[in-house]
Design goal:
Helix content: 25-40%
Number of domains: 5
Radius of gyration: 29 Å
Bound molecules: 2-(butylsulfanyl)adenosine
Distance between the termini: 39 Å
Shape: globular
Largest sheet: 5 strands, mixed
CATH architecture of the largest domain: 2-Layer Sandwich
CATH class of the largest domain: Alpha Beta
Strand content: 15-25%
Length: 683
């Protein structure tokens, strides 16, 4: 498997100079056009390699730009900041936060009593915005913290940062400017229409947009304030205001603050509670409509902030808990097209494998042909890929400056990739002109699978015959087949009789299997079990709106309406199933351990081939077992994982999931030990 080259350790002066050069080029490109040829992970690895060399060669360190903001590449500008714009020190885990708490206590001589605030660390570009008597007069970039560039030309272009406030406040608000995901998509569409290069990702796009003066189009951005200071000798609030009070006053004055994000601004009593909020915000990350790269914890009380003091670059009273990088750059090798249940042609990007947040990503979703063109994607492009939590990875954009000379525009299909027939191109989402009929055989085969209706006598050839003869137009038609029709399809009265028997017993399958057999997108075996377990009957599922569906674990605001829409569209099929006497009720014990079970409330991840009593158990069967025993299956190891079931290391080398579990202190069990734990559920 080809993977991207890792950053090597710097072991010679020549390598050191080359690494400094790469860092400097990356920073300069980022500040010039907003596109960095390195992703954050690679940039950080390279920077650590440089710092490791400098630790051993102090003579180089003295001359080095590595101690400066953005390695000295940030454009500084000539507007003096009222008060230095400080950066934040980072920790990377709960342990780091505890260590920070200890040093804070040392500085204060006691534990803080005014509590802490917890808010998202928004991944955008920092600005200071000055309001004089309620009018936005100047916007300044962060620059080197002492001086920034005047970017007042973007006034009026930033949601959350109004030109006029409803009150005559004089204040300098400080915060982060970003493209939300939606603004980013629009920005790239506008850029493509103007023949400009697409942005590789929202953050780089926002940084470039703030500094661009002469574009023939305007792109809308969004602002969230995380602080405010007095201006022109006027204090904004009386001294002694807490951080939470300052943000509340900013919001009251009409400027959007971090408190208005879905992650919110919370006041907590101590760092244990703060860590809980960090975990909650981390879990929300995939659903936030903008990027975050951490969570910021601040001492709330002004007196305690002052007592903790500030260092040369960071305040001692605030800390960023960094979250793992969820975006990497890799190469787009190919785009493959699949035809979904409704006949929609869905493109998937095939990528050079890249590690993102503990898992190897080889594929990512693309939306439709128009979207591929809006993103100006070429085969061979270096692309930025985003993956957070359990969401399907998505391609954000191409890093156009890295495009190879021979890169070709992604080819779009000329005919249906499933049946070879014509394509209906009337909408953005292309469909096979045959619609549902194109993917029907695949859907019927899926529905007949062991985990769904379990019709093992219904092979591929018979499905094809039933569909082609027109007697099966959907899953429900299986239950209305006559012996004659089955005999014709299987060319055997004996086979037909056996199949008829299987179809008869399939009417008794639990709801979770019947629901799964419908092939609703995003509802595989595990999700179908959760949905059926939660709602109990098909009628309840049909009645559920998007809000009700979000009560089911793993269904977020993006997925819920899609499921509602599909269930509604399947109404005729479900009615036919009901009419045929198919069971529409979930027996409670089939989906979940009554009263808990040994895995109650636990998130369990499985890796490797199972052994011992679990030998031959696939991922679906393991997930079902976990759910039966009261737990919830997870796909990747994170701080939220309760337990990792790991097969013995092949060749003595532990899997990446086992390494991550060890780092995070997650309990690891062998398949044998796990089988003992859940032995009551191994039927
Ligand atoms: S507070 C005195 N709060 O992260 C404290 N910064 O890596 C100054 N950032 O320079 C910063 N979200 O540009 C703070 N909620 C937040 C933030 C935040 C994003 C940025 C900010 C800062 C950088 C440090």
């Amino acid at each position: 498997m080809t993977t991207l080259p890792a950053v090597e350790a710097v072991t010679s002066r020549a390598a050191y100079e080359a690494a400094l050069q790469r860092l400097s080029e990356a920073s300069q490109a980022y500040y010039a056009a907003g596109d960095s040829p390195l992703d954050d992970v690679t940039y950080d690895q390279l920077r650590l390699a440089v710092l490791a060399w400098e630790a051993q060669h102090p003579e180089d360190a003295a001359e080095s730009p590595s101690g400066l903001v953005a390695d000295g590449a940030a454009p500084v500008g000539d507007v003096a900041h009222t008060i230095r714009l400080l950066s934040l020190d980072n920790v990377f885990d709960a342990e780091g936060l505890v260590t920070w708490g200890t040093s804070l206590q040392r500085r204060l001589g006691r534990a803080p009593v005014g509590g802490f605030t917890v808010e998202p660390k928004i991944d955008g570009a920092a600005i200071a915005a000055r309001y004089q008597a309620g009018r936005l007069t100047r916007i300044i970039t962060r620059g080197d913290g002492s001086h920034g560039e005047d970017i007042s030309h973007v006034i009026g272009q930033i949601d959350g940062l109004p030109e006029h406030l409803p009150v005559p406040a004089t204040v300098e608000v400080r915060g982060e400017v970003v493209f939300t995901q939606e603004q980013f998509e629009t920005a790239n569409a506008v850029r493509t229409a103007h023949g400009a290069q697409v942005f590789a990702n929202p953050r780089n796009g926002a940084a470039g947009t703030l500094r661009a003066k002469d574009r023939p189009y305007r792109l809308q951005l969004t602002f969230w304030a995380y602080g405010a200071v007095g201006l022109a000798g006027e204090p904004f609030l009386p001294s002694g205001a807490t951080h939470a009070e300052i943000l509340a006053a900013v919001s009251e004055a009409g400027v959007q603050t971090t408190a208005a994000t879905a992650a919110g601004l919370h006041i907590v009593a101590d760092l244990a509670e703060a860590q809980q909020r960090v975990d909650e915000i981390a879990a929300l990350r995939a659903e936030l409509p903008f990027g975050i790269d951490g969570v910021v914890i601040k001492v709330n009380d002004a007196g305690e902030q002052q007592a903790a003091g500030i260092g040369s670059r960071f305040p001692h009273w605030a800390i960023a808990v960094k979250l793992p990088a969820v975006e990497r750059q890799t190469v787009l090798k190919d785009v493959v097209w699949e035809v979904g249940r409704t006949g929609v042609l869905a493109p998937t990007a095939v990528l050079v494998p890249v590690e993102i947040d503990g898992s190897t990503v080889t594929r990512a979703t693309l939306h439709n042909p128009a979207d591929i063109r809006r993103r100006d994607l070429h085969l061979g492009d270096t692309v930025t890929v985003y993956k957070a939590g359990d969401i399907i990875p998505r391609v954000q954009g191409a890093v156009v400056p890295l495009r190879p000379a021979d890169a070709k525009e992604v080819p779009l299909p000329a005919e249906c990739p499933n049946c070879g027939g014509p394509i209906d191109r009337r909408q953005e989402r292309w469909r096979c002109a045959k619609g549902t009929a194109c993917a029907l055989p695949a859907l019927i085969e899926y529905a007949a699978g062991r985990e769904m209706l379990d019709l093992d006598g219904l092979g591929k050839t018979y499905v094809k015959a039933l569909v082609e003869s027109g007697v099966v137009t959907d899953v429900a038609d299986l239950f209305a087949l006559s012996l004659d029709q089955l005999t014709a399809a299987t060319s055997s009265a004996k086979r037909a009789a056996k199949l008829a028997e299987q179809i008869e017993s399939a009417k008794e399958r639990p709801l979770s299997r019947v629901f799964c057999a419908l092939g609703v997108l995003g509802t595989g075996r595990s999700m179908s079990r959760r949905i059926a377990g939660h709602f109990g009957t098909m009628e309840n599922i049909r009645q559920a709106d998007a809000t009700a569906l979000q009560e089911v674990e793993g269904i977020g605001p993006e997925k819920a309406p899609v499921i509602v829409e599909q269930v509604a569209a399947l109404a005729p099929v479900i009615d036919k199933l009901v009419g045929a006497g198919v069971n529409m009720i979930e027996p409670q014990e089939a989906s979940q351990a009554p009263g808990g079970g040994p895995l109650s409330g636990k998130i369990v991840v499985v890796t490797g081939k199972m052994t011992g009593p679990l030998e031959g158990w696939g991922r679906d069967a393991m997930n079902a077992l976990i759910e039966k025993a009261g737990g919830r299956p997870g796909s990747s190891v994170s701080a939220k994982t309760s337990l990792l079931v790991a097969a013995p290391a092949a060749g003595g080398k532990p899997s990446s999931k086992a390494v991550k579990a060890a780092e995070l202190g997650v309990e690891v069990l062998s398949p044998d030990a796990f089988a003992v734990l859940v032995s009551d559920y191994l039927d």
